[in-house]
Design goal:
Largest sheet: 7 strands, mixed
Structural class: alpha+beta
CATH topology of the largest domain: Immunoglobulin-like
Number of domains: 2
CATH class of the largest domain: Mainly Beta
Number of strands: 9
Strand content: 25-35%
Distance between the termini: 77 Å
Order of helices and strands: HEEEEEHEEHHEEH
Helix content: 25-40%
Shape: globular
Length: 202
């Protein structure tokens, strides 16, 4: 049996994949950020004047107590990497200002070297972390669809099924459902604020 809607479905999936790819590219910053929010995933490019395959690179976030958090990265091209600071790690940041450092190390002849190739500070913006369950699930669904989800986000479950096991259609349907719930929650909060205002007439 030949299904007439298969080509349309395939084309629709390809269009959707392209849109996700474009959206993901737009999310990548061109350089280290000066500040971040705790409720978002950070992606940025770092270009060097040396081949990244010839050295070892390490990105570090250091707080006032001297605790170090290593950031993960992927190779973008011969001279560029994309560094990520996922949403789950952002939530755990405690200091307002963190040190952001990139170190390269390797072997030159018989010498082992280590050199700081970037040193800066990162401001953590104060945000409202009173996030509802619906907002967390919606954020996780969008992260999975965009291919930037952490392991913790992929383990979120809806009706007993983890997000990583869902098809694109199931994820998009779930996103629409939870987006509607989040919009309703926001509207409810706005209405509650209006009701709590006391208007005095003279």
């Amino acid at each position: 049996m030949i299904r007439e809607n298969e080509p349309e479905s395939t084309e629709r999936k390809q269009t959707y994949t392209i849109k996700l790819f474009i959206k993901a590219i737009r999310m990548i910053r061109e350089n280290e950020p000066e500040s971040i929010n705790k409720d978002e995933t950070i992606l940025f490019k770092k270009r060097f004047n040396f081949l990244v395959s010839e050295v070892e690179l390490r990105y570090e976030l250091t707080n006032k107590a001297g605790d170090i958090e290593l950031l993960t990265f992927e190779v973008y091209d011969a001279y560029t990497i994309i560094v990520s600071l996922p949403y789950s790690k952002c939530l755990l940041l405690t200091d307002d200002i963190l040190a952001l450092t990139c170190i390269k190390s390797g072997v030159y002849g018989s010498l082992v070297f280590s050199e700081v190739v970037y040193s800066g500070s990162l401001k953590v913006n104060k945000t409202n972390l009173n996030i509802s369950h619906e907002e967390k699930v919606l954020s996780a669904i969008e992260a999975v669809l965009e291919g930037r989800a952490t392991r913790q986000e992929t383990e979120y479950s809806i009706a007993g099924r983890s997000l990583k096991l869902m098809s694109i259609k199931e994820l998009t349907d779930a996103r629409e459902y939870y987006k509607a719930l989040v919009d309703d929650l926001k509207l409810s909060k706005q209405n509650k604020k209006k009701q709590n205002k006391i208007q005095v007439r003279f």
